[in-house]
Fold each of these.
Amino acid sequence: MSLQIFNTETGSKEIFKSIDENKVGIYVCGMTVYDFCHIGHARVMVVFDTIVRHLRNLGYEVNYVRNITDIDDRIINRALENKEDIQTLTARFIDAMHEDEKALNVLCPDEEPRATDNIQEIEVMITKLVDKGHAYQADNGDVYFSVKSANEYGRLSGKNVDELDAGARVEINVAKKDPLDFVLWKSAKANEPAWNSAWGNGRPGWHIECSAMATKCLGNHFDIHGGGMDLTFPHHENEIVQSECATGEKFVNTWIHCGFVRIDDEKMSKSLGNFFTIGEVIKKYHPEVIRYFLLASHYRSPVNYSTENLDLAKASISRLYSALELVKPREECIENSIFEKQFIVAMNDDFNTPQALSVLFELAKEVNKTNSKGLATLLKKLANQIGLLEQEATIFFKSQPSNSKFTEHKILSLIAERAEARKNKKFSRSDEIRDELLKNKIELLDSSEGTSWRRT
RNA sequence: GGUGGAAUAGCAAAGUGGCUAUGCAGUGGAUUGCAAAUCCAUCUACCUCGGUUCGACUCCGGGUUCCACCUCCA
């Protein structure tokens, strides 16, 4: 069965066919680097990382481009608040973002273009739009895209231009000829960072940078464009209209949008204070637990962040790792099994990771039952395809975030003492040691080969 | 108001016109000095009202509730 992807533009699953036989170009809207990444950003990172991994597993040569927005009103404001210069601020958050990605086992995009490195490309595109009569410079110096100059607008988000017009927020912006028009180039105010251009000193608007960088890296017409659902309108709609007006070609074949993260069934927002950064969550949950949590729901569904759900994710991934702890995956992998086939079918069905995970659980059960190292190797191999189970099981269990003061050395000495007590049938002492460790969230597992431990 | 999406067992979450999803939790058993892990068995489902059908949780229509976007947002 071939890969099917839900395309936002058509609202249905479509059989995926790349423009070039074995190559896929994919562009994902990345972060605006004025703050730490939160769990919603984590979802975009993990979801598209998983999508790219699967495309590669299918044999495609993928060019994965994810931009960094490093110039924007929020960045300027934040730098002003912090009394630091913009480069220092953005460099700091870009580093933090890369740290987060590494923790979540998100592979680096092939290209990570930054808006400020592509001002020239942006200028060229705006010039084309002005020359073709799709953009104009207003009295305030800003350059706007004229939405009504385009043949069509709204096909991605299903918006109707007339309805939009009627419902447009009343905004006092006399410079725009039409409230729907959006800015391509913002003229600089005093003390704002600016680049010289045909329209005077200024900086790019938000939407145009993605059009310029995407077409630069992937060509005028490419396979997949993605991002969070909230970008569908207006950001991606605007990207389509300005790109197609500038190039005269179709912009993107398949649009992929991932759903939101909610927190305790409330909309995540800073004003409500229910906003968690990746860094914060990693202190409480192993990053692989977070990755599992994000993949345990389909990428288009909303996902609810809560300690209950993170705990569930932890229990689930622990079950998979338990199988690999019991049966070490060090053998030739079993090929062409029903498990592998089902796994691929699930992933080919619009990247159905929950379904794929259920196959892994069935496989884990089989590993536990049969002690087959070949099946354990298969379990690891399939899980690796979605960025899971890459570490040693024992390391996973021992590296759970913990407040416990018990060092490994201390734990091992207690285990030794307990072994001695058990040998002498002093079970009250051995149970005492187990209870003490358990209070510190350390669990002991006895087997014929001795006693192992894990943090819970 | 407009547009789009969703309602599945205690919790989470897939899926299918008739056949156990899956994970966690619960119950009974095996195993264990006791546990844990593991295995076996097992209890809880498909918002509501109609329709189509031999048969619908699955298709169609009406309702109810919820969510997102329409403004910066992943």
Amino acid sequence: MAKFKLDEIDHQILDMLIDNTRIPFTDIAKKLLISAGTVHVRVKKMEEAGIIRGSSLTLDYVKLGYSFIAYVGIFLEKTSQTKFVLERINEIPYVTVAHITTGKFNIFCKVRAQDTKHAKDIIFMIDDIEGVSRTETMISLEESINDKKRLMHKIFQEL
Amino acid sequence: MAKFKLDEIDHQILDMLIDNTRIPFTDIAKKLLISAGTVHVRVKKMEEAGIIRGSSLTLDYVKLGYSFIAYVGIFLEKTSQTKFVLERINEIPYVTVAHITTGKFNIFCKVRAQDTKHAKDIIFMIDDIEGVSRTETMISLEESINDKKRLMHKIFQEL
DNA sequence: GGTGAAACTTCTAATAA
DNA sequence: TTATTAGAAGTTTCACC
């Protein structure tokens, strides 16, 4: 996969859009002393290149009733079942990310639930998937999301 | 924290914005057979209520050069150091999420790096934080992000 | 709560530099 | 590559349901 070359202007456009995707292109243009048309063209290019995959809302899941987060490590009976189990896991909506991992677990996933009872139901759901031998759960007492997304695309260039 | 009550219209507005934050309110209005003004007012209310915390771009980190993901479990010398260590960890931009957890580890975090060498540097950085006794790393061979965000705010109401 | 229309702002594509 | 421009489109407010 070829790395896409972004110049300083692209980075600054990304920075502003990462903070707020609905910021008017004219505002971006003003700050960067370029025209709104230029912003438009550059964003379009980054979209076409696949750098920008889309945009989404950041919702407050706690306010929506999901205050429980756990990570679940999954042991499989056979490694060959990985793909099958991963597919079943991805069907559970409360599983927000799943990884095939090296080391202790075969699969590792993040679960977002409403409360402990709800979490228990989800974990039992995972346990019940054919091929899963057992699971190990880690409960999050506090989550702190790193707001350095803005740096990620920048620092890379510097290294 | 009081749960905010969303009605069916709110849910549908969220659904569309989750897929694409830049979709015109007039488009949303047309689909839901309401006026654009109503969409505007409802979105504003959800923003004020904190349900919508913001919006952000979904970037392709692999295309930006970050193809390495690992989870790092951290053991502390003393639990009382948790807050201090968490703060140091959150200063590392490549750490995208950090959790205080129950069970095996004291802190658990996700690291996004460019390659194994870069990941090693980051893990050493974590190891070097005062109070960290040792770490355990799990390397992700494949990440599958669950695209059920759209369901999360809905299913809750149904339960 | 919602609407519809007016006033205002922004977008976008084409053209020109 | 960037700037300008103008018509199209979107947003936001407000008087009125």
